[in-house]
Amino acid sequence: MSVVETVLVFVAIPTAIYVAVALLTLPDRQSRAPRYRPGQPWDYPPVWWTANPAGLHGGPGAPATGAARRGTAKGGARGSW
């Protein structure tokens, strides 16, 4: 085995494999939407997320509102249970 063949087998081929994998995994910046940066105007509709979608519409687990909630609230940040 000559020096050229040794360099091809142990240097060129692994380098070509690493370069091919790197090119396949790098993100394509032109295909993505532009990123939001702080201070820019927000031109998108609001998206609300909840872990319990049924609780949004007044289902059995929905929180009480108005007078019913005012008298029963205990605890909180102060820990006055």
Search tags:
81 residues, 2 helices, 0% strand
Describe the model.
The protein has 81 residues and is an all-alpha fold. Helices cover 36% and strands 0% of the residues. It is built from two helices and no strands. It is elongated, with a radius of gyration of 30 Å. The termini are far apart.
Sheet of most strands? none
In DSSP terms (H or I, runs of 4 or more residues), the helix count works out at 2
* Radius of gyration based on Cα positions: 30 Å
Structural class, by secondary structure, is mainly alpha
Q: Please tell me what the overall shape is.
A: elongated
Give the low-pLDDT segments: none
Please give a quick description of this structure.
It contains two helices and no strands. It is mainly α.
Layout of secondary structure:
Elements: H1 3-25, H2 67-72
